[in-house]
Amino acid sequence: MTFPWTLPAGPFGDRLSGYRLERDGLGRSAASVFRLEGEGLSALYLKVELAGTFGEIADEAARLGWLKAAGLPCPDVIAEQSDGERNWLLIGALPGADLASASTLTPLVRVELLAAALLDLHRLPIASCPFDHRLENRVAVAKARMQAGIVDETDFDAARLGQSAAALFAELLRTRPIDEDLVVTHGDACLPNFITAEERFSGYIDCSRLGVADRYQDIALACRSIAHNFGEALLQPFLDRYGLTAPEPARLDYYQLLDEFF
């Protein structure tokens, strides 16, 4: 496969010599994602998105740098660039497979790895994290995305299909929790965004939404992902391993609702 656009001058053209690329269709990122491999070369990932108000590549680069400095495993940022039309991010590939695809492990082992990875992230001191995703900020971004017409109403969860973004936003305001249990969250804690190798957790990926938020931001999306991939029977083992044996259904529903806007 050849590149569908001209690479920017500088580190990208130099760094990608000898690589072949294959589009990676896993995940829901608005960016185009490509896996790059070459004989005798370390695997890389290239992300490309149109430049604009709601781009996430710069956010991801900043968060990967912070997460790495915090001592948690994630891809290395090799190069980041924007040419005004597109934003580009080149990162290293982590060893192993994502938790949705790691078929050599049982589903139970995979949900326990997810719970442990979230615990490690949630134990980081929030004072050290510069990325603020409290509801005041995230609801404002959700509103801006709705007003810009980029909320995909055809991709709502089954229970909300057929409703408008405006109707869901009104519900988001009406049911907003009065408090937040703040931790450093991944922001998109679905199984494909956590990597395992040799039966151990090897790192966090797709971190553009990482920030300080209620822990239910992660718990809600993790539960939805587990139910979708493995069935609801594994929700309790996940919650038990995390240490939240009796979650609040209203908070789970709220943060799944919020995610409809992203």
From TrEMBL:
Active site: 188 (proton acceptor)
Keyword Transferase: yes
UniProt EC number: 2.7.1.95
Family label: Belongs to the aminoglycoside phosphotransferase family.
Keywords assigned: Antibiotic resistance, ATP-binding, Kinase, Magnesium, Metal-binding, Nucleotide-binding, Transferase
Residue span, Aminoglycoside phosphotransferase domain: 25-252
Swiss-Prot/TrEMBL catalytic activity: kanamycin A + ATP = kanamycin 3'-phosphate + ADP + H(+)
Gene Ontology biological process: response to antibiotic
Protein name, entry field: Aminoglycoside 3'-phosphotransferase
Binding site for Mg(2+): 193, 206
GO molecular function terms attached to this record: ATP binding; kanamycin kinase activity; metal ion binding
Organism annotation: Rhizobium hidalgonense
InterPro entries: AGP_Transferase, Aminoglycoside_PTrfase, Kan/Strep_kinase, Kinase-like_dom_sf
